[in-house]
Every structure is written in C-alpha cells, then in structure tokens.
Amino acid sequence: MSTSQPSKIQILLEELETARLKIARKYYAAYWCIGLGIITFVICFYLGAFLVALIEILILIVMAIVVCSLGNKDRKLYRLHYKQGVMVNMLEGIDGNLQINPNSGISPTDFVDSFLFGEKPDAYKTEDLVHGEIGKTTIHFAEVVAQARGNRAYVDIFKGILFCASFNKHFDGLTLVRPKHYTGSMVNWVSRQVSGDARVVDLENTEFNSTFFTQASNQVEARYLLTPAMMERLLVLNQFAESDIFVSFVWSNIYIAFPLKHDYFEPPVFKSLLNQDLLKKDIELLKLMYGIVEELDLNTRIWTKQ
Length: 306
What we know:
DUF3137; 21% strand; membrane; 8 helices; nine-stranded antiparallel beta sheet; transmembrane
C-alpha cells in the first residue's frame, strides 16, 4: 500500500515552520524580559531599592529590545520566503502565467486614474502585486490601503484588493459604478475630471440599481458595457466582498475595488503553519480574482480596440 507524497507546498510549510518557531521564541523571550522587568521593579521599589529597580528594568528592557529586533529581522526573511515559495506555488497551481511580486503593488497614480474614489490619498500603502495573462486578458491586482488625513488621525479611503483587467477597447468616456451608500464627493469630482457631464444611468436591472449608483459620461457606451449579463455577473462578484464593490470602465481597463479587512498572503508567527485551514482564505481570494476574467467574460472580444 503506497502512501501519498507530500506536496511541494507542504514541504515548504514544514521548512518554514522551523523558522517560525525560532522567531516566536524570540518574541516570547522579549515579552518575558519586559514582564520580569516590571515585576522586579515593583519588588525592588517596595523594598526601598529604587536605584536597583531602575537599573534592573533598564537592563531587561534593553534585552527585550535587542531580542525583539532580532526577531523582526528574521521575520522579514521568513515573510519573504513564504511569499516567494508558498505563494508562488499556490499561483502555479491556479495558472502558471500568474506571478507575484511581494514588494510591488498598484501605484498611487494607477489608484487615482481608476476614478474609483474622489479623494487623492495622503497616505498610501500597497503590496503583493499579482500579475499575468489569462487567455487574451492582462490582469494585475494587489492589496491597497489608501488613507486621507483627518482632523486627528488618518481615515481609510479604501482598504482591500484593487483589481485591474484589460478590455479590448479604448473607452470614449468614463463609466463608474459605486455603492449606493457611498457618500464621497465623486459626483462633482467626476464632472471636473471627465470631458462632458457625468450623468446618472438608469439601468433595467432593479437589484443592480438598488445596490449601485451608476454614472457615465457616455450613456450609450455605458449601456453597451453594462449589459444584463454584465450586471448579473457584477452582482455575483459583489457577494464576495465585505461591503459593496466599486467598478470603473476607463481608458482601456476595468477596475474593481473589493473592500476587505483580512490581511491576505501573510504567514502567522504565533500560529502553526501546519494548520490545514491556513491557506484557505488566500486560495479562495486568488481563485476569486482569477475567476473574474471568466465571470465577466473578458476574453470574449466583442469590440475592436481603436
């Protein structure tokens, strides 16, 4: 009776688990140093040995900082090896044409040019760029956190996955689909950015209209894009986001912003890598992004690019 061989991903996870345990031990040691320092300080203080207490806690805090910095250094390598090993193999299992670059993402210019949000971010972070071709369609997506400066703190403009795919057409205008509840300053902003007036598009799908607010600078083009089938497919995709998605058709691309709170593609430090459910959310997200091309039928080239 033959036993099944471990997969490449399983082998990588077992190797990384050893590194994870070493990093976790360093962090635990740092926490113990801090805890022991506080206890020592309290005991010495009550015994009247204030100077001794101060020296003791300073020594232990310095030790904790040194140990924690070593853990942080090892964690960066561990994180990179996870993404270059496990994530690469996950993508190969879905489609060998897809690649991941952990240190790249969606540029701030690309974010603004998507016209999805009416604010230019004051703080912007992006990582884990996945890119490649699915059939005739070029795609890329990445995690994005875009924030605006508030009165006392930064507030999120968007946090989640921003997806972009090529269309075989250069659009004459902008078609924008955003959540009905969205309260940004998009209406006036769109009018300033796009030639012509961005007018509301009243579509035939009542569920779509109750979920989204649609604007377009070219009404005819918007209706060609938002066919009954396309609206149904966007409603299906919308079910997978934590709140309603944003969609724009601009230049030669479709952009879709998926609001998500979970931090994807990150290896745990204080939980085992050998947990069978560890990769579940990441795999589901990658399959969702990959499935957009088929779901929206983007490989069917009904237009000729101008």
